[in-house]
TrEMBL record:
<protein>
    <submittedName>
        <fullName>ArsR family transcriptional regulator</fullName>
    </submittedName>
</protein>
<dbReference type="InterPro" id="IPR019885">
    <property type="entry name" value="Tscrpt_reg_HTH_AsnC-type_CS"/>
</dbReference>
<dbReference type="Pfam" id="PF01037">
    <property type="entry name" value="AsnC_trans_reg"/>
</dbReference>
<dbReference type="GO" id="GO:0006355">
    <property type="term" value="P:regulation of DNA-templated transcription"/>
</dbReference>
<dbReference type="Pfam" id="PF13404">
    <property type="entry name" value="HTH_AsnC-type"/>
</dbReference>
<dbReference type="GO" id="GO:0043200">
    <property type="term" value="P:response to amino acid"/>
</dbReference>
<dbReference type="InterPro" id="IPR000485">
    <property type="entry name" value="AsnC-type_HTH_dom"/>
</dbReference>
<dbReference type="GO" id="GO:0005829">
    <property type="term" value="C:cytosol"/>
</dbReference>
<dbReference type="InterPro" id="IPR036390">
    <property type="entry name" value="WH_DNA-bd_sf"/>
</dbReference>
<dbReference type="GO" id="GO:0043565">
    <property type="term" value="F:sequence-specific DNA binding"/>
</dbReference>
<dbReference type="InterPro" id="IPR011008">
    <property type="entry name" value="Dimeric_a/b-barrel"/>
</dbReference>
<dbReference type="InterPro" id="IPR036388">
    <property type="entry name" value="WH-like_DNA-bd_sf"/>
</dbReference>
<dbReference type="InterPro" id="IPR019887">
    <property type="entry name" value="Tscrpt_reg_AsnC/Lrp_C"/>
</dbReference>
<dbReference type="InterPro" id="IPR019888">
    <property type="entry name" value="Tscrpt_reg_AsnC-like"/>
</dbReference>
<dbReference type="InterPro" id="IPR011991">
    <property type="entry name" value="ArsR-like_HTH"/>
</dbReference>
Length: 153
């Protein structure tokens, strides 16, 4: 169920999405309010689950993780044990940034970030040794055109 928010809440959230390291004073000034009401609204938004944990965004290229693969997985297995094993395997692999179960011909899509094609092959070999998979297709991203964590609020 969606949380009820007004325009000020949305402005605060937009500022936090832009740069969560801003001080309360900076946010309050930008949204046209004072520090205490902004703090109270942020606290309420956290309590309501609108604001989750905070983190920093790292530059994968600066860290040598230059290859981004989108991995399309088709499986002939759909029982609970296989799904549990697959989930456990994905959770244990730090290269997997995102995993989605899909409707349609492809069962799952993974976003995998590694150093290069050789590192992807190491990931792939480990994956197929741990989980039975019918078909795997890897697509190498040639250029990241848009990437954001900002939600359209």
């Amino acid at each position: 169920m969606a949380v009820r928010m007004d325009a000020l809440d949305r402005k605060i959230l937009a500022e936090l999405q832009e740069d969560a390291s801003q001080s309360l004073d900076e946010i309050a000034k930008k949204v046209g309010s004072s520090k205490t009401p902004v703090w109270n609204r942020i606290r309420k938004l956290r309590e309501a689950g609108v604001i989750g944990h905070q983190t920093v965004i790292l530059d994968p290229m600066a860290l040598g993780l230059e290859a981004c693969f989108f991995v399309l997985i088709r499986t002939s297995e759909h029982d609970a044990e296989w799904q549990r094993n697959f989930l456990d395997t994905l959770l244990a692999r730090p290269e997997v940034l995102e995993a989605h179960r899909l409707a349609g011909e492809i069962d799952y899509i993974l976003k995998v970030r590694v150093q290069n094609a050789r590192a992807y092959d190491v990931f792939y070999q480990a994956l197929i040794s741990e989980v039975r998979i019918f078909n795997v297709t890897a697509l190498l991203s040639m250029e990241e055109i848009k990437s954001t964590t900002r939600l359209p609020i």
